[in-house]
Specification:
By secondary structure, the chain is α+β, with helices and mostly antiparallel strands. The protein has two domains: about 270 residues, Porin; about 130 residues, 2-Layer Sandwich (60s Ribosomal Protein L30, Chain: A). It is built from five helices and 20 strands. Strands 1-2-3-5-6-7-8-11-12-13-14-15 form a twelve-stranded antiparallel beta barrel. A three-stranded mixed β-sheet has the order 19-18-20. It has a two-stranded antiparallel ribbon with strand order 9-10. The chain starts with a helix and ends in a 12-residue tail after the last strand.
Length: about 450
């Protein structure tokens, strides 16, 4: 009961603080539009600015910051004596501090505070000296409601309403000068143990503002991102994101910013820390879309705490690469013709088997099976399949799998899975399989749940 009261008090305190911000900001109401378009995802997503559908767990927190540099994020068509495009902001450095807190496994809240460290700003007079002012940008507040759990269904769906508060400097285009609000729908998928993608689409409702022949009104928002885990702790991330004014919908370039790029994330083991480095380029020269952008950030997610310390640990989610008593391969194992030499193209497939064995220590014994088609004699096929099974077993051992967990056996042509009279059928019969012979419970004996 005391814990629930403290949690309710925390939520009330957050809401009160936001209300005071709104009241104060509304008093300085002057409509404009901002050029800070790098908007980091506020929780433990697999991407930089594109959100994933998964929520933080109940009372799990996430904190982070980014340093973001953009070159020429705002240019107007020149007027008067000037020609071409007139850069109003040449260089912009922004420090983004952000965080989120899960209240249930399906609901969380987050906040981003952008701080402009350096803004090389020119007035509308092309001959004027630049101004290097800084300050706080518009605060952004979000809530996320998860509808479909990607961990269970490999497809996730969430709804994320948001609002911004007019705390930024409207003269230097660091704030909108008015409240904005909207919502984003998040749809993502886990396509492989190492690869995921997320699509964000939504809308932002805002005042209709025109400055130097650029009109910004209600906007359609979108973003697409992919994450590839290519090494221990290493992830590659690619993103494309932008917006367009709904009344024009991609027909006016200066109100349709679009950026694309990517970067690297390194996750420091189980510490909860991650380091991000990346860059984007402006594809469409709209408001906020720079020629080039570079960013770096540090993030941390708190460990999940349980309310019942004496309860047994939950069972780990099933590895999707283990199905039907076998380790399912995403590719085929190829050998040199009539030999047991593994072709290098098959190394990544075997490396995935190594990963399964290392992440599933309950697999006590796996039989590496070699199979052949019906060509050649039975004795020759039996000998070749045995040699190939032993070759695959040796590769796994060389990569760190304990030899006692692996055995090799050749079955020759005795277990076909397709017609040996066709080329396609023979190709299917020439195969290497990894069959689970013995396995333990996923719980250690000392913490197994009581039946």
């Amino acid at each position: 009961m005391q814990i629930q009261k403290r949690r309710a008090g925390l939520v009330g305190l957050v809401c009160l603080g936001l209300f005071l911000f709104i009241v104060k900001a509304h008093a300085a109401y002057v409509s404009r539009f901002e050029v800070i378009t790098f908007d980091p995802a506020m929780d433990n997503t697999d991407y930089f600015t594109v959100s994933g559908s998964q929520n933080l767990k109940a009372w799990q927190g996430h904190l982070g910051f980014y340093f973001d540099y953009s070159n020429r994020p705002l240019q107007f068509v020149a007027t008067g004596a000037a020609v071409g495009r007139q850069s109003v902001i040449d260089n912009l450095f922004v420090f983004d501090a952000y965080g989120a807190l899960g209240f249930t496994d399906w609901f969380e809240m987050g906040l981003t505070v952008p701080v402009v460290v350096y803004n090389q700003f020119f007035t509308d007079d092309a001959d004027a000296d630049p101004d290097h002012g800084g300050g706080v940008g518009d605060l952004k507040f979000m809530m996320k409601f998860r509808a479909l759990d990607i961990d269970k269904h490999r497809v996730g769906l969430s709804f994320m309403p948001f609002m911004t508060l007019p705390t930024g400097d409207v003269v230097r285009y660091m704030g909108n000068g008015h409240m904005t609000g909207g919502a984003i729908i998040i749809l993502d998928g886990q396509f492989h143990e190492r690869f995921s993608m997320s699509l964000n689409v939504g809308a932002a409702l805002r005042d209709d503002v025109t400055r130097n022949a650029v009109r910004i009104d209600d906007q359609f928002l979108y973003g697409l991102a992919g994450n590839l885990k290519f090494g221990k702790g290493w992830e590659g991330i690619a993103e494309v994101y932008g917006s367009t004014v709904m009344r024009d919908f991609f027909s006016v370039s200066n109100s349709t910013p679009l950026e694309a790029g990517g970067g690297i994330r390194y996750v420091f083991g189980d510490s909860g820390f991650g380091l991000d480095v990346g860059a984007t380029v402006g594809i469409i020269d709209g408001v906020g879309s720079p020629r080039v952008r570079g960013f770096a950030g540090l993030r941390w997610t708190s460990p999940i705490t349980e309310d019942c310390p004496e309860c047994p640990p939950p069972a780990p989610p099933p590895d999707p690469r283990i199905q039907g008593g076998k380790i399912v391969l995403w590719g085929k194992i190829f050998y040199d013709t009539d030999k047991a030499t593994i072709k290098p193209i098959s190394y990544p497939v075997l490396d995935d088997v190594v990963d399964v064995m290392q992440k599933n220590p309950h697999l006590r014994l796996v039989e590496v099976q070699g199979h052949c088609d019906a060509r050649a004699s039975d004795a020759y096929n039996m000998k070749l399949s045995q040699a190939r099974a032993e070759s695959a077993r040796s590769y796994l051992i060389s990569k760190g799998v304990d030899a006692s967990r692996l055995t090799a056996k050749g079955y020759g042509e005795s277990q076909p899975i397709a017609d040996n009279t066709t080329k396609e059928g023979m190709s299917q019969n020439r195969r290497t399989e990894f069959v689970i012979i013995q396995q333990d419970s996923v719980y250690p004996a000392s913490s197994a749940p009581v039946q």
